[in-house]
Amino acid sequence: MKTRREWLGMTLGAAGAMTLAPHWVKAQSSQTSNTLITRAIPSSGEKLPIIGLGSSATFAQVARNEDHEALKAVISKMVELGGTVFDTAPSYGASEEVAGKIAQELGVAKKLFWATKLNVAPRGGAADATAARAQVEASFRRIGKPVIDLIQVHNMGDVKVQLPILREVKQQGRVRYIGLTTTFENQYAEMIQTMRQEKFDFIGTNYAIDDRFAEQTILPLAQERGMAVLVYAPFGRTRLWKRVEGKQVPDWAREFDATTWAQFFLKYVASHPAVTCITPATSRVSNVIDNMGGGLGRLPDPEMRKRMIALIDSLPGA
What pTM did the predictor assign? Predict the structure, then answer.
């Protein structure tokens, strides 16, 4: 969007520290002024950079083309700036396969935290499990690693069939973490119920400053149950860009080191202590640089979050 490009030339944010309410201070572990904030995976203590890279949307569109130089540059820049989490899925077109090849070519496959997904439409009986296993094996071939960091049941999939398969491959040592995702409102209730009944290492869901349903139950429940959280669509896909088009980032955003709208939006999401990593999708290096700035420096405290919400809620497009 036009507004984002206008702000890409500005600085990524100044150094500093900020005194937050006690339970929010825990959210800002392992950060300095020029290194990405990291968060621990509750089930293991392993730390991940707060900003990663997704491969849906424009990344998936570019992956369908024969020329993948843009995506190679995007992945390379993400790693250069300290990012490690790469989120993909078989349903994102050619993204999983293309990213796997690019990572091998760049020699960064071992540096990446690979997060992919499993979702096979039910066929009935044993065919369900057979198809699900085949999709898992296809992900291994595409990614090109003997061990995948994370596989999640995608958009609630066929949980009864697919979750046991993921537990099986985890027990075999072929997958390090397993989880569950949804970005669909009509699946939230089922996701919440499943989170209460089953144990996962991760969950993934949509969360943005103008899409705050996750704050009500999903994020607190993830904290209670010791589950890491991957956040998708932190810009409301394109919704937030339309709401701020033609508007400047407020001066007071510098109090939490945000100088662009991308950083404003990402820092709101990152400041929730349940969030482990945010994976905005992009096919532009300039956007990767901008996004990574959202994981540097200070984060807004609870009072500042309220001020941020009030600003965005006052804009048209809710």
Answer: 0.88
